[in-house]
Design brief:
This protein has eight helices and 15 strands. The protein is an alpha/beta fold. The chain has a single domain, classed as TIM Barrel (Alpha-Beta Barrel). The chain is globular.
């Protein structure tokens, strides 16, 4: 498996290096909240010696209801992400949803993310891969909830046939299991790494209960917040190269996936534990 590097940030993923942390907000709510969250998480990761990438979405395009909060949109969202990047000197990961967004997103985001529901959209995946190759960044592709781990072979092959170099990370985030539920098969991490790419764990979205938020009469996704540390710890013990986590200072007031995000004041303890598990797993 190759070790991927972001030379301008002195970051690496893969091999036996430190656990990479991609963490932040589910969706941008305000510039102030984004700046404060990035500052807190950067400080924690620096103290622990963990490489850090700030995460937030400018648009949640696959919400359960048309009335759900989606975010500030492309232009304002990228402006906020640029402000976070400039103020705190951190790399950025954010989603791209449409072909027309690819170049603008790749110009700001050091890690361009393909959402799980879009991971087999060939035109979007290839355009994003080419933009990332040109910018020198990484492509973070979430495995669809409808795919077995080994079925990601088609995604990886598409990217390799259309581009040159290694810059792809696959992300495990669970698979649909019955109604309103997801499960994570930890054996899938090694299966995806066998494709020659690093693998992250999206522990936040892995505990979602799609369409099952009891507060919304089934018009929003539910979640099991308490399960996020369990999934994250199990995945790191199973060899995951990175963790993808979402925090909020007041999780119950988060405007998207409130039942799945963690309290920001618990980030230090969880990341300290994950670092220790990574060290033990590599011993």
């Amino acid at each position: 498996m190759p070790v991927l590097t972001l030379d301008r940030w002195k970051l690496a993923i893969g091999g036996e290096g430190p656990l990479l942390v991609m963490a932040g907000l589910n969706v941008l709510e305000s510039e102030g909240l984004a700046l404060d969250t990035a500052a807190e998480l950067k400080s924690i990761c620096a103290a622990l010696g963990l490489p850090y990438v700030f995460k937030a979405s400018f648009d949640k395009a696959n919400r359960s209801s048309i009335h759900s909060y989606r975010g500030p949109g492309l232009d304002e969202g990228l402006r906020i992400l640029e402000a976070v990047k400039a103020r705190h000197d951190v790399p950025i990961v954010t989603d791209v949803h449409e072909l027309g967004q690819v170049d603008a997103v790749a110009a700001v985001a050091d890690v361009v993310q393909i959402p799980a529901f879009l991971c087999r959209q060939t035109d979007l995946v290839i355009a994003s891969a080419r933009a990332v190759q040109a910018s020198g960044g990484w492509l973070h592709v979430k495995k669809g909830q409808f795919l077995a781990p080994w079925d990601c072979k088609g995604i990886v092959h598409k990217i390799r046939e259309a581009t040159e170099g290694d810059f792809t990370i696959l992300c495990e985030r669970g698979v649909s299991f019955g109604y309103n539920n997801l499960v994570v098969d930890m054996l899938g991490i090694e299966e995806m790494q066998a494709l020659g790419v690093p693998v992250s764990i999206d522990a936040t979205h892995a505990v979602q209960l799609p369409g099952a938020d009891p507060r919304s009469n089934s018009t929003a996704t539910g979640g099991r917040r308490g399960g996020v540390p369990t999934i994250a710890k199990a995945a790191v013990a199973s060899g995951a190269d990175a963790v993808f986590l979402e925090f909020h200072p007041e999780p119950d007031k988060a405007l998207c996936d409130a039942l799945s995000c963690l309290p920001l004041d618990g980030a230090a303890d969880l990341l300290r534990t994950l670092k220790a598990i990574r060290t033990a797993a590599l011993a």
